[in-house]
Structures are given as structure tokens and as C-alpha cells.
UniProtKB/TrEMBL annotation, chain A:
<feature type="transmembrane region" description="Helical">
    <location>
        <begin position="124"/>
        <end position="141"/>
    </location>
</feature>
<feature type="domain" description="NADH-Ubiquinone oxidoreductase (complex I) chain 5 N-terminal">
    <location>
        <begin position="75"/>
        <end position="125"/>
    </location>
</feature>
<feature type="transmembrane region" description="Helical">
    <location>
        <begin position="6"/>
        <end position="27"/>
    </location>
</feature>
<feature type="transmembrane region" description="Helical">
    <location>
        <begin position="187"/>
        <end position="210"/>
    </location>
</feature>
<dbReference type="Pfam" id="PF00361">
    <property type="entry name" value="Proton_antipo_M"/>
</dbReference>
<feature type="transmembrane region" description="Helical">
    <location>
        <begin position="419"/>
        <end position="440"/>
    </location>
</feature>
<protein>
    <submittedName>
        <fullName>NADH-quinone oxidoreductase subunit L</fullName>
    </submittedName>
</protein>
<dbReference type="InterPro" id="IPR018393">
    <property type="entry name" value="NADHpl_OxRdtase_5_subgr"/>
</dbReference>
<feature type="transmembrane region" description="Helical">
    <location>
        <begin position="460"/>
        <end position="479"/>
    </location>
</feature>
TrEMBL record, chain B:
<dbReference type="GO" id="GO:0048038">
    <property type="term" value="F:quinone binding"/>
</dbReference>
<keyword id="KW-0813">Transport</keyword>
<feature type="transmembrane region" description="Helical">
    <location>
        <begin position="60"/>
        <end position="84"/>
    </location>
</feature>
<keyword id="KW-0874">Quinone</keyword>
<protein>
    <recommendedName>
        <fullName>NADH-quinone oxidoreductase subunit K</fullName>
        <ecNumber>7.1.1.-</ecNumber>
    </recommendedName>
</protein>
<dbReference type="GO" id="GO:0005886">
    <property type="term" value="C:plasma membrane"/>
</dbReference>
<keyword id="KW-1278">Translocase</keyword>
<dbReference type="GO" id="GO:0030964">
    <property type="term" value="C:NADH dehydrogenase complex"/>
</dbReference>
<dbReference type="InterPro" id="IPR039428">
    <property type="entry name" value="NUOK/Mnh_C1-like"/>
</dbReference>
Length: 629, 103
């Protein structure tokens, strides 16, 4: 039996790392340089500690312990509102934090190699650890308010890290965009929590008591609350319509992209919906709505990805697309399938980003795939792992992406949501197409010269190899019954009351074959079009798709410009003319009156005496009348 | 016998002349004399009441007023001399140095 008080150390370890690294960094810039090894050790050991503790708790859970709960102190206690600073380690939270810490740890190791010789090395690791700590607060929170702390924490860290190279305006703007788009979502999230609190009539605010009391609330309020919470998820997990920050977030260094996309921020929305499974299982219309948003996000992002030229933006859109799949699953109530896809996606997407980062470094920060292909270098480990990642995300068995994506598509089919199923299938085709387009251009398409050797650091290649194992094998964790598996992830996440895929094996086999065929056809199309592509004649950047449907421009025109107009109207007209006019004219009259009064005080003795006379006369007259003399 | 009212009238007239003197005249000596006049008006009133009610208390107050007025005269005259030395004038309207205003 493991001590429950270990739970808090999962969060505290990276938080401590952030504080230590921050302190050392201040020492570094103010006093004398601190060697990078110090930051590296602190930065990578603390996530490792968090991972090992999580592993301990996980192993203890395997021995029959169901839930860890640790209450640290009462944070807020007003009337019926009771918020404790408490952490909850149930199956869902431990499942999530296991791979968050593990993949996060690998990304930290990778970052040593990637960020080496960077001026802000220490700062980077301080932010990085803080990012992980925030995510773990989010995952291990025992009530929605604590969850919100982590939720805001990852938002803050993403802002800090995306704008890490703050000397360039573009990066800062990208950071701002991420922060503001998330803020819109967070606003919905706060309203969702408040609505939930009022819907339940002010019960003790923890997930446990919310779950037991959920039946007391009216369905309409719950639906509103569920919708508002999902608005928060739209922001964090980059779904339509709040996705615009995600591609721009590629301005940050690549390890950040890997961390945001694989293990932290963007998965928060999926996790949150799963965390509120008791809420969403009661409001199926909202669930269907979520599934549709997810489906359209998946399709939309995949379409845009087919014409992008920036390697990281392709990956960013693919993340958005894969998140769409996850929302299809959680929206339809298949929480364990959704989280299973989060798990497999964490492995292969982290690997893809790291591989992309390795290539970007080797090619001196070139990100356009056509130009990258022109200066191709032989990076054997990156090449192989990249191929594994591309295959995994395309959904080719037996790589992990196939099982998780197939579980989601089967779920949509089983629920009778054939529209979503069709969209998902088409997206799978597009996914295979654009991922292999990228792969063929980068590694296969003919070019005139190929450099053969470029140094890559061990800290870059080692995490790639570990993740490659995960990307290949993680799928077997939740092998469907039709293939002789035991649904291990589904069983583990039974606490979420997830709907299970129950269909005849024949149907399941047919669905699998169809999805494999569709993915394969995507690869074939990509092969025909791009395997012999002349990288010296890249595609033009015109057209609706290459310009991302002009959504940024539309948002700019509709929201940004109008907001600016309204603010300047409020500033120039309402504030300066009306409010200032009213208040200042009142003030001015008082000042004028005061000046008039001041003239009475002229220090003239006789004048004062005269006033005394008048005053005394008045008093006497008053007394004379009132006393009736 | 002269009635109480007559005495009261005389003291009121004295007091009023004093007040008008303080307010209307600019010469600081005249103001000082007007103040004395007001004090004497009050003294007369007090003594009248003392006689009328056969009570000596107001007379004691009157003697105190007279003695304090004597002390005050000493201070007042020295202050006047100082003021005159600094401003070369006895016009009270120019003694406004304690004002907060523009002068």
C-alpha cells in the first residue's frame, strides 16, 4: 500500500524544478553564468520523479487500490461553497498523468539537445517544468476550481513559451493570439463552472460530490453548463471556431510544440470532458454537438493541412484534426476510446515534432518542406522514426494510431452517427494523404544533392527511439476483442462509465478493412503525386485551401477590427466626451464654487467681524422667535 | 427710579456703537476703542442686573472684565506699535498677511 501523500509530489516535483530553475536563471543573468548541465539536471530529474511517483501509484492501483485522494487544506469556505485544495488520483487521472509525465520527461530530455547554447536555456527549463506542473494540477485536480488553476497555468505557460523568442514581433503576436483565443474559451469555462454550481444548488465542490448530486439539477441548466465547459475545451484543444492560435503557436521552439501537442495543453479539453463524464452522459444532445464539432474540426484541419508548406504547421493542423477525432469519441460517450487516442497520439505526435525539430536544426531553421527537401541531409534515426510516426498517424496496422482511430470510427458507426463516421473516414484518407505528402517530399522526392552526415545530439535521438517503441506498440494496450485483445485501457477507465464498442466481429472486421483501405488509398494518392515530385518547383501558395480558407482574415475583419472600433468609440466618445465631460464639468463647478468661498477668507479683520455680527444676529433672531419672547 | 429697560437700552446702544465702530472704521485705534466700548456696554448690563437681582456675582465678572481689558490694552498697544513699524500704517485693510490668497 502506497502512501496517499505521495500524490501531491507528482505536482510539486516539477513545480519545485520550475522554482529552482527560475532561481538559478536569475543567478545566471545577474551574478555569474550557471552551466547548462545544472538546468538540464533539474529540468529533467523533476519530471522523472513525477513519473516514478505516478508509476508507484499506478502499480499500487493494479493491486486493487482504487482511488487516491489527498486533501491539503480548505481553500475557500463561504456559506455552502466549500473548495478544498485537494488532489484526486483515480484511474482516469493516473492514466493521464502517467503518459503526461513520461512523454513530458522525454520531451524535456530532447529539449536539452535542442536548446543547447541558447541564451535563455535556464528560463526555458523553468517555463517547461512549470508547464508540466500546471498540466499535472489540471489532471490531478479534485474539483473544477483546482482544475481551472491548472487550466489557466497551461494557458500562461503556452503564452510564455510560444513567445519565447520575444525579440521578434511575430512570435510575440503568436503568443498573444494563443493567450487571447484561450481567454475566450476560459471565459466559457468559468461560466460553465458557475452554472454547474448553481444548477446543483451549491453543494460541496468536488468531482465526487458533483457526481453524486448531478441528478438534482435541471437538465436545461446542465446542458448550458456542459456547453459552456466545452467552449473552454474548444479554446484549449483548438477546435472550431477557436483553433486559430494553434498553427501560429508554431512560432515557439519545437520542444514546446511537442509538449503542447503531445502531452499537455491541447489534450486538456479532451481530459476535461472525460472528467465531467457524469455531466455529459446526462446531456446527450450536447455530446452529439461536441462530436460534430470534433468531426468538422478534424475534416477542416485535414483539408487545410493538405496544402501547407511549413512542416510544423502541417503537424499543427494534424494535431487539430486528431483532436477532432478525440472529441468525436468523448462527445459520443466513448471516453476510454478518446483517451486511448490521446495516449497513442501523445507518442507519435511527440515523435513527429521531435523529428521535425531535429531536421529543422540540421537545416539551419528551415521549415518549408520544399526547401528542406532541396538540402536533404541523411539523418537515419530521424528518418526512420519519422516514417513510423507518419504510418502511425495514418492508421496502418499494427501501428498504434490504427487501433485508437479505428476504435473511434467504430464507435461512431455503432452509435448510428453515419455522418460523423463518413467524415472521419474521409479525414483518415486526407490524413494519410497529407502526412505521406510531407514524408515523400522530405525524404523520397528526387533532388540534386544530398548531404550525408549531420551531427545530431544523443539527447535528441534517444527520446525519439523510446517514443518510436510507444508509437508502434501502444496500440496493443487496447486491442479490440475482435483481434483477440482484452480492452485493457477500456477496463482501466471503467470508472468513467464509458460506452463500449459492442458489435459483431464481422462488422468490426469490415470496418477495419475499410479504414485500412482508405488510409492505404491516401498513401497511394500521395505516392503518385509526390514521390517523384520536383522539389525545385514547389506548389504555389494561392487558392482557398493554401490560405487556410481565409479564416484568419475573416476573424480579423469580423472580431478584431470591430472590437478595435468599439474600443476606440468607447474611449474617444463615451469615456472622454460623455463620462469625463459629466464628471469634469461637475468638478469644475465645485472648484469655481470653492474659489468663490475662498474670496470670503480675505484675512480682513473688519470683514470677519461683520460676518460675526451677521451670524450672531441670525442666532439671536432665531432664539427670539423659537423661544417666543 | 430709572427702569431696567432704560439701562438695557443704554448698554445695547453702547454695544451697537462698538460693533459698528469695529466693522465700519479702518483706523486700528478706533477699532480698539470700539472694542472697549462694547466691553463697557456689557459691563453696564451686568451691573444693572446685579443691582436688580441683589446679587454680587455679575459685579465680580465686571471687575474681571475690566482687569482683563487692562491687560489686553497693554498687549494690544504693543501689537499695534509692532504692526505700525512693519507697515507704516494704521489701516487695518492692509493687515491681511495671513490670508491664503493672492496678495
Amino acid at each position: 500500500m502506497v502512501d496517499t501523500s505521495l500524490l501531491v509530489w507528482i505536482v510539486l516535483a516539477p513545480l519545485l524544478g520550475a522554482i529552482l530553475n527560475g532561481g538559478f536563471y536569475f543567478y545566471h543573468i545577474k551574478r555569474k553564468p550557471v552551466p547548462e548541465i545544472v538546468f538540464s539536471i533539474i529540468g529533467t530529474m523533476t519530471p522523472l520523479i513525477a513519473f516514478l511517483i505516478t508509476l508507484c501509484l499506478f502499480l499500487d492501483m493494479l493491486n486493487g487500490n482504487t482511488t487516491f485522494r489527498q486533501e491539503l487544506f480548505t481553500w475557500v469556505n463561504i456559506g455552502s461553497l466549500n473548495i478544498s485544495m485537494a488532489f484526486l488520483g483515480d484511474h482516469l487521472a493516473i492514466f493521464m498523468s502517467l503518459f503526461v509525465t513520461f512523454v513530458g520527461w522525454l520531451i524535456h530530455i530532447y529539449a536539452i539537445g535542442y536548446m543547447t547554447k541558447d541564451e535563455g536555456f535556464g528560463k526555458f527549463f523553468a517555463y517547461f517544468n512549470l508547464f508540466l506542473a500546471s498540466m499535472l494540477i489540471l489532471v490531478l485536480a479534485d474539483n473544477p476550481v483546482i482544475l481551472f488553476i491548472g487550466w489557466e497555468g497551461v494557458g500562461l505557460c503556452s503564452y510564455l513559451l510560444i513567445a519565447f523568442y520575444y525579440s521578434e514581433e511575430e512570435n510575440v503576436l503568436a503568443g498573444n493570439k494563443a493567450f487571447i483565443a484561450n481567454r475566450v474559451g476560459d471565459f466559457g469555462f468559468i461560466l460553465g463552472i458557475v452554472t454547474l454550481f448553481f444548477a446543483l444548488g451549491g453543494v460541496d465542490l468536488s468531482f465526487g460530490s458533483l457526481e453524486t448530486n448531478i441528478s438534482n439539477a435541471s437538465t436545461s441548466l446542465l446542458a448550458l453548463s456542459g456547453f459552456l465547459l466545452f467552449v473552454g475545451a474548444m479554446g484549449k484543444s483548438a477546435q472550431i471556431p477557436l483553433y486559430v492560435w494553434l498553427p501560429d503557436a508554431m512560432a515557439g521552439p519545437t520542444p514546446i510544440s511537442a509538449l503542447i501537442h503531445a502531452a499537455t495543453m491541447v489534450t486538456a479539453g479532451v481530459y476535461m470532458v472525460s472528467r465531467f463524464h457524469f455531466l455529459y452522459s446526462g446531456i446527450e444532445e450536447i455530446g452529439t454537438f461536441i462530436a460534430y464539432i470534433g468531426a468538422f474540426s478534424a475534416l477542416f484541419a485535414a483539408i487545410i493541412a493538405t496544402r501547407q508548406q511549413d512542416i510544423k504547421k502541417i503537424l499543427a493542423y494534424s494535431t487539430m484534426s486528431q483532436l477532432g477525432y478525440m472529441f468525436i469519441a468523448v462527445g459520443l460517450g466513448f471516453y476510454s476510446s478518446g483517451l486511448f487516442h490521446v495516449l497513442t497520439h501523445a507518442f507519435f505526435k511527440a515523435m513527429l515534432f521531435m523529428g521535425a525539430g531535429g531536421m529543422i536544426i540540421a537545416l539551419h531553421h528551415e521549415q518549408n518542406i520544399f526547401k528542406m527537401a532541396q538540402h536533404r541531409v541523411q539523418l537515419p534515426i530521424i528518418g526512420i522514426t519519422f516514417l513510423i510516426g507518419v504510418i502511425a498517424i495514418s492508421g496502418i496496422p499494427p501501428f498504434s494510431g490504427f487501433f485508437s482511430k479505428d476504435a473511434i470510427l467504430a464507435a461512431a458507426f455503432q452509435e448510428g452517427q453515419y455522418g460523423i463516421w463518413a467524415i472521419g473516414m474521409f479525414t483518415a484518407f486526407l490524413t494519410a494523404f497529407y502526412m505521406f505528402r510531407m514524408y515523400f517530399i522530405l525524404f523520397v522526392a528526387p533532388n540534386k544533392h544530398t548531404k550525408h552526415y549531420v551531427y545530431t545530439s544523443k539527447t535528441i535521438t534517444l527520446p525519439l527511439l523510446i517514443l518510436a517503441v510507444g508509437a508502434v506498440g501502444a496500440g496493443f494496450l487496447n486491442l479490440p476483442g475482435a483481434l483477440g485483445g482484452e480492452h485493457m485501457v477500456d477496463t482501466w477507465l471503467a470508472q468513467t462509465n464509458s460506452t463500449q464498442v459492442h458489435m459483431s466481429h464481422t462488422t468490426e472486421y469490415i470496418l477495419m478493412v475499410v479504414s485500412v483501405l482508405i488510409a492505404a488509398s491516401g498513401i497511394v494518392v500521395a505516392y503518385k503525386k509526390y514521390a517523384n515530385f520536383d522539389v525545385y518547383a514547389p506548389e504555389d501558395e494561392k487558392g482557398l485551401i493554401a490560405n487556410k480558407f481565409y479564416i484568419d482574415e475573416i476573424y480579423d475583419a469580423v472580431f478584431v477590427k470591430s472590437a478595435k472600433k468599439i474600443s476606440s468609440f468607447i474611449d474617444k466618445t463615451i469615456d472622454m466626451k460623455i463620462i469625463d465631460g459629466l464628471i469634469m464639468s461637475g468638478c469644475n463647478q465645485f472648484i469655481a464654487l470653492g474659489k468663490k468661498v475662498a474670496t470670503i477668507q480675505n484675512a480682513n479683520v473688519r470683514f470677519y467681524a461683520g460676518f460675526m455680527l451677521i451670524g450672531m444676529s441670525c442666532v439671536f433672531i432665531y432664539l427670539y422667535i423659537s423661544l417666543g419672547l | 427710579m430709572i427702569s431696567l429697560t432704560s439701562y438695557a437700552f443704554v448698554s445695547m446702544i453702547l454695544f451697537s456703537i462698538g460693533v459698528i465702530g469695529v466693522i465700519a472704521r479702518r483706523n486700528i485705534f478706533v477699532i480698539y476703542m470700539s472694542i472697549e466700548l462694547m466691553l463697557n456696554g456689557v459691563n453696564l448690563f451686568l451691573i444693572t442686573f446685579a443691582r436688580y437681582h441683589f446679587n454680587m456675582d455679575p459685579q465680580i465678572i465686571t471687575i474681571m472684565v475690566i482687569s482683563i481689558a487692562a491687560a489686553e490694552a497693554a498687549i494690544f498697544l504693543s501689537v499695534i506699535i509692532l504692526l505700525f513699524r512693519s507697515k507704516r500704517s494704521l489701516d487695518t485693510d492692509i493687515f491681511t498677511t495671513l490670508t491664503q490668497g493672492e496678495k
